[in-house]
Amino acid sequence: MNTNTSTQPASQLDIRPAPSATRAERMERVVTIIGRALVAALFILAALGKITNPKPFLEHMTQFGVPTWLLPAVIALELIGGVAILIGWRVREAAGALGIFCVLTAAIFHHQLGVKAEVTLFLKDLAIAGGLLVLAASAAARERAKRLAPG
User: Fold this and answer.
1) Domain total for the chain?
2) Distances from the Cα of 111 to the Cαs of 81, 103, 117, 118, 135, in angstroms?
């Protein structure tokens, strides 16, 4: 079956290489990398802080009834998720997991909404979660677009 809908024979079709990235596309890539690096830094530095000085984090977890044996899992999530976002590997999964983590952090540690500082921390955690969920959704959309793109 001939799928050529052109009036020219297949041998005479004008086949040109795909155009190079536009300035806007290059800028989008740069901004995406910078944005991912900024988000990743938050989690990587948090994990390193917990590794180098776990005592205040363990005390904070105990104060809120969170089992301290979860600290290594938190460190692993922050470190692996942060590095994954930084290098662009499995961004959808990493950003989604960290987004859920931020919602849980807000609900568990910053639920004292009568205290102004806690409201700010609660809202910051939710804002970070929102940004991470948008990052996860855009990574998923980008993956779908790549699968559907010809070539």
Assistant:
1) 1
2) 25, 11, 11, 7, 25
Q: Which domain holds residue 137?
A: 30-148
Separation of first and last alpha carbons in the chain: 21
Q: How far apart are CA 46 and CA 101, in angstroms?
A: 13
The distance of Cα 114 from the centroid of its chain, to the nearest Å, equals 31
E strand residue ranges, the chain: none
Comparing C-alpha atoms, which of 71, 69, 66, 91 is closest to residue 81?
Answer: 91
Residue-wise pLDDT tens for the chain (151 aa)?
A: 555 555 555 556 656 665 678 999 899 999 999 999 999 999 999 999 999 999 999 999 999 999 999 999 999 999 999 999 999 999 999 999 999 999 999 999 999 999 999 999 999 999 999 999 999 999 999 888 888 887 6
Residue 120, in any domain of the structure: yes
Q: Is residue 139 part of a domain?
A: yes
